[in-house]
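Design a sequence for this backbone.
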């Protein structure tokens, strides 16, 4: 339990200590872990902390904060001592994709983290899927 609390505290404050530009966060979450996602290939490597995993999946954004999507990161420890990581990016400057969401399951390997499963879905700006999370491409 203590290691889970330390991990939460470390994740909360790592963005301020990171040499890279921190990812912006949106306020109260309206996003959840449920629903359909499309499977992604699982990288066969380890990371020193969960924020490095977030940056590898989400990528880096422009230096102009007005051009960047708002990103929310939620992480919870499970009973089997794995972690659920939910990353939501909303507000893309794209004509069809409004946002993306990644659902990633992590495990500890010594002092490092590995990815057990990774999935994604998108939210569309327009069409029949406008405002909905979908696993197929937005048109």
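Sequence:
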């Amino acid at each position: 339990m203590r290691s889970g609390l330390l991990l939460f505290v470390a994740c909360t404050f790592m963005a301020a200590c990171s040499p890279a530009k921190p990812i912006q966060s949106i306020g109260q979450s309206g996003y959840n872990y449920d629903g359909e996602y499309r499977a992604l290939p699982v990288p066969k490597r380890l990371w020193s902390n969960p924020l490095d995993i977030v940056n590898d999946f989400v990528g880096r954004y422009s230096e102009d904060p007005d051009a960047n999507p708002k990103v929310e990161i939620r992480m919870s420890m499970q009973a089997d001592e794995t972690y659920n990581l939910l990353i939501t990016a909303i507000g893309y400057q794209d004509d069809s994709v409004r946002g993306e969401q990644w659902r990633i399951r992590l495990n500890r390997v010594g002092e490092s983290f590995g990815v057990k499963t990774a999935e994604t879905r998108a939210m569309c700006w327009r069409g029949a899927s406008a405002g909905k999370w979908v696993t197929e491409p937005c048109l």
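Residues 2-17 form the longest helix (16 residues).
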